[in-house]
Amino acid sequence: MTERPAVLITGCPPASAPPPHGGSCGRSYGMAECTVAITCRPLDSGLGVDVVQAGPMENGDRAEPATGSTGTRTLVRQGPPLPGIEVKVVDAAGWLDTGDLGYLVDGEVVICGRAKDVIILGGRNIYPTDIERVVTLVPGVRSGNAVAVRTRFGSGREGCAIIAESPRAGDEEAVERLTGEITMRVVDVIGARPGQVRIVPPGRLPKTPSGKLRRSSAAKLIEEPAAR
After folding, report:
1. How far apart are CA 147 and CA 16, in angstroms?
2. Concatenated DSSP letters for 43-81?
3. CA separation, residue 98 to residues 80, 113, 117, 120 (Å)
4. Which regions of the chain does DSSP assign to beta strands (E)?
5. Distance between CA 177 and CA 168 in Å, rounded?
6. What pLDDT sits at residue 155?
7. Using CA atoms, how far apart are residues 27 and 71, in angstroms rounded to an integer?
8. Of 220, 215, 162, nearest in space to 193 by CA
9. What count of Cα atoms within 13 Å lies in the side-chain half-sphere of residue 221?
10. Cβ of 36: how many Cβ atoms within 10 Å?
11. DSSP-derived secondary structure letter, 80
12. Does residue 141 contact residue 178 with C-beta atoms inside 8 Å?
């Protein structure tokens, strides 16, 4: 009997995802260790989502179905496992720990983010993608070019720093305006205040060869002198 690959996804609070856009987009989940593909939605099924309550997700590491239209998070369904692959949400050893956080719903995998990226603010588990989505909507910030990273203040308390790209990075007046607008919007939408906001020129945020933001490397920009 051929052994079935086993993949571990640690149970966790999910992060927000974009709303569905009909049948023009399909989703899948994969990693190099499994020769890329692990799950995939049928091509004619469109983009499926799961809407959960924000409170249990942030405070209790639970994904509970939403009961209203406010205080929710929308997560993308990544589809069921492909033939010959088994996926299980566990906290024990013996499976391949992907470092991803997520859960299963109706046999489909829902990925929330990376365990190492979760930011704890005021006892709440906040995903950087939630913050980044708010930041990139601020006029003057390059779309898709903002990161939220964990930081430690002098007291040892964990906080959040935001680094955003803008073509106005060298304009002190514009930087001051952007910093204030970003802080205000994050407080309004997320309910938490970032400890630091840094504006950098376009192209400064480090990315992988496939174009993904590298948060751990981006965090080093906090220590660099401001652009002038």
Report:
1. 15
2. TTS---EEEEEHHHHHHHS---B-SSSSSEEEEEB--PB
3. 17, 11, 13, 21
4. 6-11, 28-31, 36-40, 49-53, 72-76, 86-88, 96-105, 108-114, 119-121, 124-126, 146-152, 158-165, 196-200
5. 10
6. 64
7. 25
8. 162
9. 26
10. 10
11. P
12. yes
User: What span, in angstroms and rounded, lies between the C-alpha atoms of 138 and 151?
Assistant: 22
User: In this structure, which amino acid lies at residue 171?
Assistant: D
How far is the C-alpha of 62 from the C-alpha of 67, rounded, in Å? 15
CA distance 135 to 87: 33
Q: pLDDT per position in the chain (228 positions), as tens?
A: 344 444 455 444 444 444 444 445 567 888 877 777 889 888 777 788 899 888 888 887 788 888 888 888 888 899 999 998 888 887 656 677 788 888 899 999 998 888 888 888 878 888 898 999 999 999 999 999 999 998 876 666 778 999 999 999 989 999 999 999 999 999 999 988 999 999 999 999 999 887 888 888 888 888 765 555
CA–CA gap between residue 72 and residue 102 (Å, rounded): 16
Token pair of 161, please?
């720093």
Strands 36-40 and 28-31: antiparallel
**How is residue 139 written in tokens?**
């006029």
Cross-strand bridge partners of residue 36 = 31
* Domains in the chain: ranges and CATH: 6-117 (no CATH), 119-223 (3.30.300.30)
Percent helix / strand / coil, the chain, rounded to 5: 20, 35, 45
pTM reported for the whole predicted model: 0.73
- Residue 91 has what DSSP assignment? S
Per-residue tokens: 42:
């049928």
